[in-house]
Each structure stands twice: as C-alpha cells, then as structure tokens.
User: What shape does this take?
Amino acid sequence: MIAADALTSGSARHERQPVARLAVLAESVAVLASPVIAFFVLRLRAMSPVDLPDPSMHTIYIVDPSQMFNRYAAAFAATARMREGAQAGFLVLARLAYLGFGILGGFFVMRYFLALVAVVPAYVLLRKLYGIPAAVVGVIVLLSCPVLITAWGTDYPDCAVVSYIAGAVCCLAMPARDRGRPLWLIAGGVLLTLATWSHGIGIVLAATTVVVYVLVRLMRARRRLVRDGALLVAVAVAATVILMFASRAVLGQFDFIRPTLAAEKFLNHPDQIRQWHSANWRWAPYVSYLLVPPSVIVAFWLSFARRLSKIASPQLFVGLVCTVQLAVFAYLQFAYHVEALEQHFFSSTLWGVVCLALALTLAEMAKPIWGRRLWRWLPAVLVLAVPLAYEASPQVPAFGWVPAGTDLALTPVLFAAVMRFWTLGGSAHSARRARSVVAVALSVVAVTGSLLVLTVAQRPAMPPMTGLASAGDPSPTYGQALGGSASVLIDWYQVSASIPAFVGNPTYKGEQLLMWFRWGVRQFLEPVGIFHEGFNSLGPGFPVLSTADQHDLARRRPAELLLYSLTGDGFRTALGALSRYKPALIRTTVLRHGTAVLHVWLIVLRSFARRSIWPSTTT
Assistant: This one.
C-alpha cells in the first residue's frame, strides 16, 4: 500500500511538472513583454519633447561618432566639450542598437533594453519577497512613472543611469542562497559600472549604493563580505576594460576615463558653476516633483516601522539606498555646487530607486490581503487604474510646495502610518478582513494618485530673484508622459539623426564645421545639437554676417558651414554674405520625415579648407 501511494504521488508530481514549466514560461514571457504591453495600455509617450539641445549632443555619437572625434577633438580640448563622447556606459550599447536596427529602430530597441534592466530585477525581487501580485505592482509602478518615461524618451544618458541604478540595487538586494548570490553580485557590479561610465551623476549613485551595501552587510551578513567585495571590484575592473575596448571598436575612443576627469575639472570652474548651479535654494519651493522622493522615503520607513533589526535585509537595503542617495543629492545641491536637484536631467536619476521603494511600500501596506486569492490582485489593478484615470483628464494646475504640494506629499505619509497601525492590530475576523480590503484600496489610490499629481504638476511662475543659474533649467514635461503623442518628435528625431550622413565624414582631422541658422526657431533645438549647438554656431543675425561672426570664423577657421532653414529662405543671401571666404555650395537637400521638414545647405569655405575638399565646380 505504501509503495502504491508513493508511486501515485510520484506520478502526480511528474504530471504537474509540464504544467509548472508552462506557467514559468508564460510568466517569463509576460515580464519580458511588459514594456510593450505598458506602451500600448498606458499610451506611453514614445519620445520626450526637446527642451534643450543636450540630448542630441549624444545622438551624434550614436549615429556617427567619428564626425565629432575627427572634427573637434582639438577645438574642444580646452573646454572638455568632448565629455559627451566619454559616456560610454550608455553610448556603446546605444550605438550597437543603432548599427543593428537603424535610427528609429535602434532608439526603441535601446529603450526596451533599458526598461527590462529596471523591470526584470525588480519583478524577481518583489516576487521573492511578497509574491507575484506584488511583483506586478512593482512593474506597473516603474513603467507608469512619468519621470522614467521622460528620461527614456531622449538620448541624454539619464535614460541609462536611472535603469542601471535601479537594476543594480535590486540585484544587490536579492535574497539568494550562496550559489546564486555571486551571479546577482556580478549582475549588480556590471550595472553599477555601466552607470558610472554613463554620466558623472552615475558615479555618485553607484558609490552610495556600494557604501550602503557594505554597511548593511557589516550589520547583517559579514560572512564572505570580503570575498563578495573582491568580486564586485573584479567585476568593475573587468567591465571597465571590456567597455574600453568596446568603446574603441564602436565609438573610436579607447580611453574615456581621462575625458571624464577633465570634464569634472572644467565644470568646477567658477564661471561654469554660476552658469549651471543656483547660489540659493529659493527656486526649490516652486518645483513640486522634488517632494516625491522625501514623501516616498518617509512613507517607506513608516510602513516598516519596527526595530531596525526586525526589518528584512532586502527592504532595509533598498530603503537606506533611497534615503542616502536623496541626502547626498541634497548636499550636492544646497551645500556644494552640483546642480543635482536643480537640473531635471540629473534629479531624474533618483527615480528608479524611488519607484522601487514605493513598490515595496505599497507591498507592505497591502500585506493584509496578499493571502486572499482574489483580492491580492486589487493593488495591481488600482495602481494601473490611477495613470489611466489621469490620462482621461490630464488637467493638473501649476503649483509649488505651499500649500498644495505639501498637502499632497503628506498624503502617502498619513496613509502609510494608518496602514501600519492597521496591520499591527490585525485580526482574522471576517468583518475586519473585509475592512482591510477597503483600507488597502483607499491607501493604494491615495498614495499613487497624490504622488502622480505631484510629479506632473507644472512649475508656477517664479518672481525675479538673484543667485539663480544663468543657464536655467526648463520645466520638464512630465505631464505629457502618459497618453502623450510623440509623432512630431519622432519625425524631427529622424531628420536630426540624418544630418551627419548628409554632411559626410571629414577627409582630414580637424576639418571643422560650423552651423548658421535663424536663432529662436524651436524646431532647431535638436538639429543644432547634433553638432554641439552654440559652440559651433554663428550668431543670431542669419543671413547677415555680423562682426562677431567674422571674428568667430577667423578664430575657428572652419572648412565647412552648414545652413539650416525651415523653408530655404535666406540661403542665397547668406552665401553672398560669405563671399570674402570664397564659399562653394557643394550639397543641398531637404530632409523630410512626416511633418518635419528641414532645408540644409553644405558650404565649403575655401579660405580655410584644404584643397582636397574643394569642389571641382563652384557656385
């Protein structure tokens, strides 16, 4: 009888194995497809509006890096303007995507990869800690965050840093047995290294992550810490070396470390600090989205309110990383001279870990219903419903910290405290269990709704004040990330990325090219960024050559001049104004993609160009 029962049990297990494998396969496919599903369900904006030429200064390195290295390496040396080409942690992978899939295909393949870098480790972590429904909540929180969507929507490296850091934190927080831990450590080390070499702010985030990791291990798990630390160091060194060879192969630059250090030194000049960093804090109360990280952090610690030794190590690690990173950013902004919070390109890099902390907070708040087969999916449904409801009527007025911003920031704190006390007083009584469902539902909607409104609110008008950065920072368009159209942006991205192919590679090193166009035309922000905007542009008097323009031409001695226009008007006048420099029109085109139209002329200035690039006939 016992043998028969054992045989029957073994047969049942054998029959369940294919079903289990199919379930795992379906779950894996769903996670891998989640960015695509979210794109269509949430109608995510595929690209972000261009408010500065900075992103397209990186696009040129993705599309044709040799143009920059061959034309401007010497001209940019004094001002460290080749620093965009040194951000190999992002550019190498983005260029490989471009080489494999083209201009537009490469852009979206890279964004899909970056979304997976954040989503997959977060899903696995939350699944291990709370189960599949909580993991789905984490995925939705990440993929519906307007800050992440906006960051992913440009070629500025914050799109990579925000994913790398979030993925790395999940990998280092992962509860794993001794056999699995080295694999997660290796993955986390690779992502931290990529973040370090993607942007200067990534160095700060990677360093704080490692410091917190060591501290938590010293408190909780000292065994094999030296071995694990050595593994992280070895991974960082190996990943950096591999990245250097990859950079040489696809970008044309082996050493990106010295340009990074040179950029840091240059940006520490007093004139650069005044240009990019405000000397006071009075601008901050007008920026509502800055309240989101502290609100999430306070709500997180209230949700886990208990003795420090009682908080599980993964949750403790994530909470401490989020807290320390915000504290370091606040120090850099208000006690040092780095615009860590003032520039939305910089502050956005915090949001990956902030979203992770928010997902853990929601998971902890929803603990009373995780054991209920049907109701445990309610948080995921509600977290998805909040951005969908916003899309139905995206009308959020502009406001600052007082009073609306503060009230909204306190909402997650209040509900986290209430749910913590509710959990402490838990009961198996059916009536209380029913009330728990209602309490969790209200809390999830209140927390996610208030944080979403804080994030998308526009800045109110600021009164004139002294001490602000001279360059300023345009208000990010977070309110358009959900349910926004990107068709015009996609058209202009394709036009802009087509410009290097029209210009062609230089025939000799140092063959500089300057641009000339009518200033103040918003559509030019991206095209002029391709060749580094103002530094390589003549003044605003197009098509009349000013005295300042003549001085620039004499100083830079450009071989070529690139003319932009929306209609082609003024090109002939501009050519006549350049007569003293012996101009020769060598190529013209009209770049068109959808609604985007750009007229372009390429002119050789024979007064400065070598004879090898002179056209056989002149115009």
